[in-house]
Specification:
The chain is an alpha+beta fold and 263 residues long. It contains five helices and 13 strands.
């Protein structure tokens, strides 16, 4: 039987408020899984809507399938390097293949050059952005400077805290202003560093990394070499013509992985 993750206050056997609740690894994994589920559900809902609309309103279907593809890619990014990755990868290709067959896909042309904006194609480039900065991080549990002696909490550990937002800030369990966590209940919560407008954040650098700490910090478009297009499409090619993208019609082309400088 799994250990309990919540207790009513003063319940027999309840832990002391703010006491140590053990390593927080499982909480981090559960949060990642919840984000995967959330975006997967969005993707499937948009996919169903697009399939329903395609016969009577292609414009509306196009908008829905774009939303679906964006959500599917986000689900994949959150699942990256976990046991959930494979299913999200398959879903991206399934939705992308349907869009190509039912509504068509093409490269974006901005008047000067072509760009690949398809979330499926971009997701196969395993890279993203990481920012280097300094800031005062506030502990999500005690609302003190996380780096100061006033904060008794440690990253990687969980603690028993009351739920719900209060006059001092957001809910200490989920760091939201509105949620279903109750102030009369103790929950296991991990330590998070909160950065706000008062954190005196100073940006030092932006780097490209193989796997960003924020899973959604990814490329939004990739330039396409016009000369290579011309060589592939032949002498009749003229920049500006619609260029179809057929990537999702075949098998998965595999991933291109960015190599971090320390590897």
């Amino acid at each position: 039987m799994s250990p309990r993750s919540e207790f009513r206050l003063n319940e027999p056997g309840a832990p002391a408020e703010d006491s140590d609740a053990g390593p927080a690894k499982d909480l981090g994994e559960a949060y990642v899984a919840s984000r995967v589920r959330y975006y997967r559900q969005q993707a499937l809902r948009g996919f169903e809507d697009a399939q329903r609309l395609v016969v009577k309103d292609a414009v509306a279907a196009e908008e829905k399938i774009k939303q679906s593809l964006n959500a599917a890619a986000k689900s994949f990014w959150w699942a990256e390097d976990t046991s959930l990755e494979g299913r999200q990868h398959q879903l991206m290709h399934k939705i992308g293949r349907w869009k190509r067959k039912s509504l068509g896909c093409s490269l974006y042309f901005d008047g000067k050059e072509y760009k690949q904006r398809c979330p499926v194609a971009i997701a196969h480039k395993k890279m993203g952005f990481s920012i280097g900065f300094t800031a005062v991080r506030i502990c999500s549990l005690c609302r003190q400077d996380l780096a100061s002696d006033d904060c008794p909490h440690f990253r990687g550990q969980s603690y028993w805290v009351r739920g719900g937002a209060d006059a001092n800030g957001s809910c200490r369990v989920c760091v939201r202003d509105e949620c279903n966590h109750r102030p009369d209940t103790l929950y296991r919560a991990s330590v998070r560093g909160i950065i706000s407008a008062e954190s005196n954040m100073v940006l030092h650098e932006v780097s490209i990394v193989r796997k960003p700490a924020q899973p959604e910090a990814r490329l939004t478009e990739i330039p396409v070499d016009t000369h290579r297009l011309a060589a592939h499409l032949g002498s009749n090619f003229l920049p500006g013509v619609c260029v179809s993208c057929d990537q999702c019609l075949g098998g998965c082309p595999g991933f291109i992985e960015f190599q971090d400088s320390d590897q």
